[in-house]
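Molybdenum cofactor guanylyltransferase: structure tokens wanted.
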Amino acid sequence: MSGFIANADDIPVVLLAGGRSSRMGVNKAFVLLGGESLLARISTRITQRQRKPVALNADPDWPDTLGLTLVPDGIPGKLGPLAGVLTAMRDTALRYPQVSHVATVPIDSPFFPLDLIARLADAIQGRDDIAIATSFDRDHPTFGLWPVSATADLETWIVSDPKRRVRDFLARHDVRTVKFPAVETRIGPLDPFFNVNTPTDLIEAEKWLAALEGIS
Ligand SMILES: Nc1nc2c(ncn2[C@@H]2O[C@H](COP(=O)(O)OP(=O)(O)OP(=O)(O)O)[C@@H](O)[C@H]2O)c(=O)[nH]1
Ligand SMILES: [Mg+2]
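Answer:
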């Protein structure tokens, strides 16, 4: 579809926190980085550029949403990150019926680019396009813009595909990838999508945070 424009200001954001945090051993959203929980950091960072209220995809008994609207998965069984994406799409269709896309941002990447949603939105060329972030030649599909028009396809695929690999779902759609550059720090280049999955990652994230002080 030509002439389609995805306006970043119209795109709602859903933070993804519906995983098991099995590698961290405790709920990742509440581990502290620089004295602040990952969830609080991500929430503050996203609201710096975000106009619409931000929702949180997490378990229904989540202890503290920090004022974000809680949107638990509708399908049981913790079927992986795309279960969170599906929840985001469904919630968007319900609450913002005019909107073409929803953005997802996981709660475990505290240095994600501030221009993330604007740049992903710029890459969208049609109402049905997906846009995902890449850095250092790696895709980061949990940082994505997802067309609400793909909801039915994801609903069917997620309960029928035996492997549920994100790249297999992406292969069913038109995907735009957007490259984000490394962030220069005092100790070298940082991948803006540095991911905190383990206690060791958290220690490394503290180093990056210190190396960024006064920079971003
Ligand atoms: N809704 C939902 N989100 C998920 C699910 N699995 C992972 N996610 C989210 O997808 C993002 C990437 O997942 P991971 O980094 O592997 O996080 P995780 O699954 O909590 O951690 P591990 O158990 O250590 O793999 C995180 O923001 C998770 O919260 C799921 O089954 N349902
Ligand atoms: Mg992760």
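The chain has one domain: 8-212. The pocket of guanosine-5'-triphosphate (ligand 1) is lined by residues 16-23, 28, 57, 73, 78-81, 83-84, 87, 106-108, 142, 197 (CB under 6 Å).

Cheers.
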